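I had to read the description of the data format several times before I understood it. For illustration, here is how one protein appears when written out as sequence plus structure tokens:
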Amino acid sequence: MSEKKLVHTMRMPIRWGDMDAMGHVNNTVYFRYLESARIEWFTQIGCDPDPAGEGPVIINAHCTFIKQLKYPGEIEVLTYVGPPGRSSFETIQEIRRVDQPEILAAQGGAKVVWVNFPSEKSTPLPDNIKELLA
């Protein structure tokens, strides 16, 4: 994706329980880090899902593991978005240790689709969300 816009930054600790038997953060935990940052951003912009109405859902998620993370430490997750489509947009996220900001530990993201929950169908992105993404 060539066009991307930084929309959110979040710091969080690497917890002891995030590590696995190999002594590094387990690969599944990276998805939790990405999810936590995405949900905090959704909350900040006022697009919490409304089970009786509309909201965001992800239809795929991906992560490339570049550098092992280990406890103790603190990470920063940067969230970028691509240009909005009719009912969806891409998020692109980077994970870096706060004490090593020049080293990319992982890069991931998700495709987000705006959904009408009762009908279980995609629906056009609301204008206020499109404006935030543009």
